[in-house]
Amino acid sequence: MTPVDALLAAAALHLGFQMVVTGVVYPALAEVPDDDWSRAHDAHSRRITLVVGPVYGLLAAACLWVLVSGPIDAIVLTSIGGATVSASATAFVAAPTHGELGRAGRNEHLMSRLRSADRVRLCGAVVCAFFALSA
């Protein structure tokens, strides 16, 4: 397996994961009744962490492998840029927003912020996978 093959595999895994979060997990979480929000959100946070860590870890490892193996072209850098956008949206927006949702409970402002971060992550995952496939 080449570093670019690893990037493509990790990008495909990440895109699949992100599509499930966007299309299934977050819509289901949004439908939880207010009186069950804390329990459902806590369960979501515990479960999703078990998947987020390995997916982003593999993606980061593949990106790093590509960067250190060289040579690097614009297509590969664009793929890595998509991964960076997704990881940044997760680390700097989605994760802190989930923390606030856990402490403060659900409100429309926080849910809107979470959905916005999720759209950014999905776009980053699409860019990452598309350009990894093109590399």
Task: Describe this entry's structure for a reader.
By secondary structure, this protein is mostly helical. Helix content is 88%, strand content 0%. It contains 4 helices and no strands. Helix 1 packs antiparallel against helix 2. The model has no long low-confidence stretch (mean pLDDT 96).
Characteristics:
135 residues; 4 helices; elongated
The helix content is: over 70%
Q: Please report the number of helical segments.
A: 4
Compressed to H and E, one letter per element, the order equals HHHH
State the distance separating the first and last CA atoms: 14 Å
Q: What oligomeric arrangement do these chains adopt?
A: single chain
**Overall geometry:** elongated
Number of beta-strand segments: 0
Radius of gyration: 16 Å
Task: List low-confidence stretches.
Answer: none
Structural class: mainly alpha
Mean model confidence by pLDDT: 96
Largest sheet: none
The percentage of residues in β strands lies in: under 5%
Give me the secondary-structure topology.
Blueprint: H1 3-30, H2 37-69, H3 74-104, H4 108-134
Helix pairs in contact: 1-2, 1-4, 2-3, 3-4
